[in-house]
């Protein structure tokens, strides 16, 4: 298999998952955001972990690991993951100051500045990407979606250490790092956060999924059969996310389904895989990291702007509503057409901003990170033998 291979269908699925998580946090009356499927879309973070383990193990397991490659690996991961996190942390701190300011001007602020998950005591753990690991820090400190980044960052470090081991040893460790957290998750163990169990188990489940894929990729896949399998997997994901009862087993069951889906769609054989290769979905995949990290702050900025507009013009675009005993800020539309149109406009706006952060933050800092890498020495020339 070519080391340059891109799993385009998986890229698109990553983008779709990021948009589903966005829809989970954006509340629009009479839209898909209020369906049970979207209200349960937080389960697609499991998909992120499985997919990340699959792609990371594929990318870095092709060559023997050594200290130089490990050093370059850590630099690459840091400059890939951390800069946008830090930028959004700075944005969040500025937003918290803004909350204090607009509250002093008499505006109704749903959550005052620098309290709850934005308590200054949680700032240093969040800077160090430890908020997902520490029991005394909310996993969603300062940016509620960044907990998964916190888990992934250090799991990536540990995977780099495992790459020094033999393939058979890695496989055993992957199995243990999947099975033990899943068992603890199913039994409701709270020694560590559930987020830790989820992140560790599903990332290394993704690593094992790639191992299975690598051993089966040579098998001939029938396009008709795999079209049926892909359609069934999509329907299964929808119905299980929507209707599977909420208990300690739902997350691991969905993770197994996601692992099977990653293996299936990595082959890009069926009709759904072909549909996933259209440009808008590939673009969503490219922007997925930015979409995932920035959408919460964009939603706050939008709702804050509507409060200011309402104060000046007495025209309310958003409103506070109690839904399932929770006070939420929502766009109150009158029917499904206007509701979903309003949601689509916000998704497109988020994608536009994500395109900016992708180019200005993600790509730029990835390139800067390359300056710190040490070039690997060229292989020694093989002696020429004569007969």
Write a short abstract of this structure.
The chain is built from 14 helices and two strands.
Order of neighbouring strands in the sheet with most strands: 1-2
How many runs of DSSP E, i.e. beta strands? 2
Distance between the termini: 34 Å
Weakly predicted, low-confidence segments: none
Q: What percent of residues adopt helix (DSSP H or I)?
A: 55-70%
Mean pLDDT: 94
Strand content: under 5%
Number of H- or I-type helical stretches: 14
Largest sheet: 2 strands, antiparallel
Secondary-structure-derived class = mainly alpha
Q: Give the topology string: H per helix, E per strand.
A: HHHHHHHHHHHHHEEH
Envelope shape? globular
Gyration radius over CA: 22 Å
Summarize the structure in words:
With 387 residues, the chain is mostly helical. The protein is built from 14 helices and 2 strands; from the N terminus they run αααααααααααααββα. The protein has helices at 8-25, 36-39, 44-60, 67-104, 123-127, 147-162, 167-186, 194-216, 223-243, 250-266, 271-275, 279-286, 288-313, 336-370; strands at 319-323, 326-330. A two-stranded antiparallel ribbon has the order 1-2. β1 and β2 (326-330) form a beta hairpin. The longest helix is centred in the first third of the chain and has 38 residues, at 67-104. The radius of gyration is 22 Å and the shape is globular. The mean pLDDT is 94.
């Amino acid at each position: 298999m070519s080391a340059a291979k891109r799993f385009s269908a998986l890229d698109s699925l990553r983008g779709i998952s990021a948009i589903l998580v966005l829809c989970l946090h954006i509340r629009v009356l009479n839209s898909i955001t209020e369906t049970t499927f979207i209200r349960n879309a937080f389960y697609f973070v499991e998909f992120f972990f499985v997919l990340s383990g699959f792609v990371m193990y594929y990318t870095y397991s092709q060559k023997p690991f050594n200290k130089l490659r490990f050093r370059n690996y850590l630099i690459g991961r840091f400059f890939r993951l951390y800069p946008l996190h830090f930028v959004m942390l700075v944005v969040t701190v500025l937003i918290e100051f803004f909350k204090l300011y607009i509250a002093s001007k008499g505006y109704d602020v749903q959550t005052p500045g620098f309290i709850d998950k934005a308590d200054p005591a949680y700032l240093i753990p969040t800077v160090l990407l430890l908020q997902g690991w520490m029991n005394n820090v909310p996993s969603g400190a300062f940016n509620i979606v960044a907990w998964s980044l916190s888990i992934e960052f250090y799991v990536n470090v540990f995977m780099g250490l495992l790459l020094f081991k033999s393939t058979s040893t890695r496989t055993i460790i992957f199995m243990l790092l999947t099975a033990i957290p899943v068992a603890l998750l199913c039994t409701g163990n709270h020694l560590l956060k559930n987020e830790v169990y989820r992140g560790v188990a599903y990332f290394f489940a993704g690593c094992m999924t790639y191992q299975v894929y690598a051993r089966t990729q040579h098998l001939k896949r029938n396009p008709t059969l795999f079209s049926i399998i892909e359609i069934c997997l999509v329907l299964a994901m929808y119905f299980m996310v929507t209707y599977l009862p909420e208990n300690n087993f739902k997350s691991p069951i969905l993770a197994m389904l996601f692992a099977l889906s990653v293996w299936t769609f990595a082959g890009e054989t069926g009709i759904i895989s072909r549909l996933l290769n259209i440009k808008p979905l590939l673009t969503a995949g490219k922007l997925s990291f930015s979409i995932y990290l920035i959408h919460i702050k964009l939603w706050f900025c939008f709702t804050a702007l509507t409060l200011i507009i309402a104060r000046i013009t007495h025209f309310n675009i958003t409103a506070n509503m109690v839904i399932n005993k929770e006070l939420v800020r929502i766009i109150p539309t009158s029917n499904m057409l206007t509701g979903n149109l309003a949601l689509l406009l916000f998704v497109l706006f988020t994608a536009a901003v994500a395109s900016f952060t992708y180019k200005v933050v993600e790509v730029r800092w990835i390139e800067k990170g390359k300056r710190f890498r040490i070039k690997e020495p060229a292989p020694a020339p093989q002696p020429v033998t004569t007969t």
